[in-house]
Amino acid sequence: SKGQHGSFLARPSKSRPGGFTLSVRWVGGDVTHIKIQNTGDYYDLYGGEKFATLAELVQHYTGQRGGLLRERGGAPVELWHPLSCQDPTSERWYHGHLSGKEAEKLLMQKGRPGSFLVRESQSKPGDFVLSVLTQQLDRADRQARVTHVMIHFQPDGKYDVGGGERFDTLGDLVECYRKNPLVERSGTVVHLQQVSQEPIQEHPPL
């Protein structure tokens, strides 16, 4: 509903796990959607030049008069005015394709209570998971345990944790819960205190 010719935003894809969609406004107000592939190693437009990050891809195609991009009919697509690029991939807390078990291993080995990371959900493609090493001790072995909180990506492009406040980006959600404790469904109070900075070597942050 906002924007001018060449206005665009990048958002996570609901239909393709890990992928993104570039939505661009045309003259007359029409919006075209361009699919961005995320292989885990690079980003591209399902062919053509490859980029290490989503930000590099967007920067490459921005500000090119006549447009380097083409829509299906062959007409050029120009990117001029970024409205919002929901790019979590450059954040230190984002670990992309990481399983729940791998997240637990990483946090238990390297983290302290309050350490956290965000990863893509494997059970619900398009959603994300906040994995946190909590203060609460496991009664069996008296160790801190890892709590997994589902982050839902809604059809309107907002993020939430199953109720309560909704956010425009993953970054906004993380920043909010770094300042305010999050109460998980089981009643566990989750504090986000520090980013898990040392990735498992086989699965580095994207």
TrEMBL record:
<feature type="domain" description="SH2">
    <location>
        <begin position="93"/>
        <end position="200"/>
    </location>
</feature>
<dbReference type="InterPro" id="IPR036860">
    <property type="entry name" value="SH2_dom_sf"/>
</dbReference>
<dbReference type="Pfam" id="PF00017">
    <property type="entry name" value="SH2"/>
</dbReference>
<keyword id="KW-0727">SH2 domain</keyword>
<dbReference type="GO" id="GO:0004726">
    <property type="term" value="F:non-membrane spanning protein tyrosine phosphatase activity"/>
</dbReference>
<keyword id="KW-0904">Protein phosphatase</keyword>
<dbReference type="InterPro" id="IPR000980">
    <property type="entry name" value="SH2"/>
</dbReference>
<dbReference type="GO" id="GO:0030971">
    <property type="term" value="F:receptor tyrosine kinase binding"/>
</dbReference>
<dbReference type="GO" id="GO:0005737">
    <property type="term" value="C:cytoplasm"/>
</dbReference>
<keyword id="KW-0378">Hydrolase</keyword>
<keyword id="KW-0963">Cytoplasm</keyword>
<protein>
    <recommendedName>
        <fullName>protein-tyrosine-phosphatase</fullName>
        <ecNumber>3.1.3.48</ecNumber>
    </recommendedName>
</protein>
<dbReference type="GO" id="GO:0070374">
    <property type="term" value="P:positive regulation of ERK1 and ERK2 cascade"/>
</dbReference>
<dbReference type="GO" id="GO:0050839">
    <property type="term" value="F:cell adhesion molecule binding"/>
</dbReference>
<feature type="domain" description="SH2">
    <location>
        <begin position="1"/>
        <end position="83"/>
    </location>
</feature>
